Amino acid sequence: MSALTAIEAITDRIRERSRPLREDYLGRVEAATGKSANRAVLGCGNLAHGFAVCAPSEKIALGGDVVPNLGIITSYNDMLSAHQPFEFFPQLIKQAAREAGGIAQVAGGVPAMCDGVTQGQPGMELSLFSRDVIAMATAVGLSHNMFDAAVYLGVCDKIVPGLVIGALTFGHLPAVFIPAGPMTSGLPNDEKARVRQLYAEGKVGRAELLEAESKSYHGPGTCTFYGTANSNQMLMEIMGLHTPGASFVNPGTPLRDALTKEATKRALAITHLGNAYTPVGRMIDERSFVNGVVGLHATGGSTNHTMHIIAMAQAAGIRLTWQDISDLSDIVPLLARVYPNGLADVNHFHAAGGMGFLIRELLSGGYLHDDVQTVWGEGLAAYAVEAKLGADGTVVREPAPEKSGDDKVLATAAKPFQATGGLKVLKGNIGLAIAKTSAVKPERRRVEAPAVIFHSQEEMNAAFKAGELEKDFVAVLRFQGPKANGMPELHKLTTVLGVLQDRGYKVALVTDGRMSGASGKVPSAIHVTPEALDGGVIGKIRDGDLIRLDGEEGTLEVFLSAEEIATRTCVTADLTANGYGMGRELFGAFRAMVGQAEAGASVFA
């Protein structure tokens, strides 16, 4: 069976499974579609409030029903490097909208928190839930019904998935996502990781560590490793929500500004007031999500998206599962080596050919659906290009390069880095879990060792410092799931486990929590579901129980009989401290309502 045939079969399976929900969703999209400007249904008082601060000419235009009005949903703040460039985007967008004969207004802002700031801190327990808060904040901004299309300014971990969920909830509106781009390359990621390990071993001090971190994260734009933020940008482009070639152009450059203006004009061109109406709810379908999963596998994308993309699909009435993701992983080759899956950063990836080269290779190998709608029009082949700045200051596009600019960073479909994708679903008597195999050396993907139980990162770090982990073991870190404490990332463990692995021990991690999109070289079974607080088997494992994690075969087993597992009771943990401080008391309802990781860890489904 060819790759295309297999991928079409998986897509058909998703389509059939989703049919009732998808039909209901599309019915709601159709019912919300107006015959004139959406604001035409507003009373005079409503409308007067909506354009009170506009210029007189804009009020006249908005008072009629023929001029499109563009809503801007922004995640701007100036603490986060990835979102700081958005400070200047609304003015560019408004200028471009006027040039196109439309109007643009900032419809609302959404929160944008940084997992890099909150790693290992109490605030990290709000991180996953912020995705659904962002979706709700998007809905608040668009609920005024003043807009005929929307542009979404977001980059990082939970922000883009939350914006997508919000956009699909307003599926009758065209949606164009506008990125800010990555920061320029700083201290190489592998060198930063080396200093982190030295610090964990007590060989360098805090001053040296801070210097290395500051040289790595040094200016405006996304962090340059291939974590969730840059996986988001790949995903938006391969799903057709960016304009072609927009994802990885650095902020503060003429090309970045030209792409922003172009995206604005395109959003206005595809409203229902014109001839190319492209509502996002109809545009994004099962094929779009399959293309997104293919992109994640081909690039070794973030494990966080095994939850986010499921939650995003649900918002469009599409039932995507971990089994679908696993089956696609067995088909799709790994074509990119970007840290933590390699030494390169996203700027090197972009310079080697970037998204245009990647999409062309995947299309030519039969791994992508070309017959999809995008914000650019019909067909994904239009994205197999490289965006450049024309002599007149506008965007021009050329075909993607025929050869990779660096075959250690970006490979062809004919000669991939490995035959299968970078993500793996693990199954066994412990439950379901996710493993990112692309960053783990093949000889380390299978670990069989006794369990050592922990209920917090701090507990495990203390054991490491006390010299209690100088052995082969599988760390079982539980009560880290969404119901327990909001499912924080456990990135602080990456360095500790990496040190022990480098010392020659066979180590692995099994947890119902998350790991950072930057994590990689240590074999890990994450997102274990059911989680411990839900009665999952992970809550029954004891110190010394033998565990096998096999990233090649896709299995996760504790060596206990079914009878022994049935007779054991789940341990309990005092989670009182996780309910208060740094705003956690406001999220008790989220912890009570949230679904399992395999269903997207969402409060909506």
TrEMBL record:
Pathway: Carbohydrate metabolism; Entner-Doudoroff pathway
Keyword Electron transport: no
Name recorded for this polypeptide: Phosphogluconate dehydratase
Entry's Gene Ontology cellular component terms: cytosol
Superkingdom: Bacteria
Top-rank EC class of the record's enzyme: lyase
Residues in Dihydroxy-acid/6-phosphogluconate dehydratase C-terminal domain copies: 408-601
Family named by the database record: Belongs to the IlvD/Edd family.
Residues holding [4Fe-4S] cluster: C156, C223
Gene3D superfamilies named among the record's database cross-references: IlvD/EDD C-terminal domain-like
MF-aspect GO terms: 4 iron, 4 sulfur cluster binding; metal ion binding; phosphogluconate dehydratase activity
Domain Dihydroxy-acid/6-phosphogluconate dehydratase N-terminal: 68-381
Cofactor note: Binds 1 [4Fe-4S] cluster.
Necessary cofactors: [4Fe-4S] cluster
Name of a matching Pfam family: ILVD_EDD_N
Catalytic function, reaction form: 6-phospho-D-gluconate = 2-dehydro-3-deoxy-6-phospho-D-gluconate + H2O
